[in-house]
Amino acid sequence: MFEGRAIKLKINEVGPRDGLQNEAAFVETDDKVRLVDHLSGLGYSKIEVTSFTSPTAIPALRDAEAVMHRIRREPGVVYTALIPNVRGGERALECRVDEFNLVMSASETHNLANLRMTRPQSLRQLGDVAAVALSAKVPVNISLSCVFGCPMEGEVPQATVLDLVGQFVGLGATGVTLCDTTGMAYPTQVHGICESVAKAYPQLNITGHFHNTRGMGLVNTLAAVEAGIRQFDMSLGGIGGCPYAPGASGNVATEDVVHMLQWMGYDTGVDVPGLIQAAHELERLIGHELPAQVSRAGERLKRHEPPAGFDEIRERAIARNTASAK
């Protein structure tokens, strides 16, 4: 179990949107562009650059147009953005976004709290936004929040998840992201739900999106891989979170998950030293320590100098060994 066997996995970076929107400090446009440009050269399949939400609602991303216009487009990388409504979709098309990422929740309570709409209202709006994208031949991915549990309702029935995914297919979505929005997932649950969705909708590109709130983000990722999922959202440094789950931490840290997967033999195509360098720069930009582990401790085989006085310790040990041998 959990052996890589050179399986190719696609890694999506969501930090520039999902992460930065939760930060108190505004990251300047020039710095956002430099960060995305750095990430573009590290081997990602997709980067979620920003959100075309109202600047009043998410002031941290009020420079969405400027960032999208100025980033360097690396061949083979999909540059996606969160699109909340038709107006946001029109703005995104003007900026040549490669994909529309839409969002709603599997939980009625969470959907109302987060989006101020019932689920049927959200589905109608998703249909309108998807029509804008599809008329311009831009693919649509829909991120389904609270698939693995809601902090206000508890368990979310698997039947609800399957039904909603089916409705997304009817709207023309070619991809669906199964989101553990508040870190409530556990491995056997993840395996079961991911496997069920993949079997029911084999035509979909399914992405796993996990948070590390209860320390299970990495093993949940492995459970999804075992269930056949081959694409994953991650956030540089582990930044992000959900305002409707007190104590909820951020997304699984890209450098932690990629480091683990590569040592297990999976092919992610992502440059771990480059991730660590980017994480250190991100930490400087947001002004506080990141929750990630690998960017703090370094890669598994990072070498360190022996402690002070080591040569003397070694010489004494050799001397004692020599004396005892006589």
Structural summary, described in words:
This protein is of the alpha/beta class and 326 residues long. The protein has one domain: Aldolase class I (TIM Barrel, Alpha-Beta Barrel). It is 43% helix and 13% strand. The protein has helices spanning 15-19, 29-40, 64-70, 86-94, 108-115, 119-135, 158-170, 187-200, 217-226, 254-263, 272-286, 294-297, 310-325, and strands at residues 10-13, 46-51, 78-82, 99-105, 140-145, 175-179, 205-209, 231-234. An eight-stranded parallel β-barrel has the order 1-2-3-4-5-6-7-8, surrounded by eight helices. β6, α8 and β7 form a beta-alpha-beta unit. The chain is globular, with a radius of gyration of 22 Å.
Provide the succession of SSEs: EHHEHEHEHHEHEHEHEHHHH
Give the strand order of the largest sheet, numbering strands 1, 2, ... along the chain: 1-2-3-4-5-6-7-8
Q: Would you tell me which CATH topology applies?
A: TIM Barrel
Mean of residue pLDDT values: 95
Number of strands: 8
- N-end to C-end Cα span: 52 Å
The portion of residues assigned to helices is: 40-55%
CATH class: Alpha Beta
Major sheet details: 8 strands, parallel, barrel
Mass-distribution shape: globular
CATH architecture identity: Alpha-Beta Barrel
What is the CATH H-level superfamily?
Answer: Aldolase class I
Q: β content, as a range?
A: 5-15%
| Secondary structure category | alpha/beta
Counting H and I runs of at least 4 residues, what is the number of helices?
Answer: 13
How many domain regions?
Answer: 1
Nearest-angstrom radius of gyration?
A: 22 Å
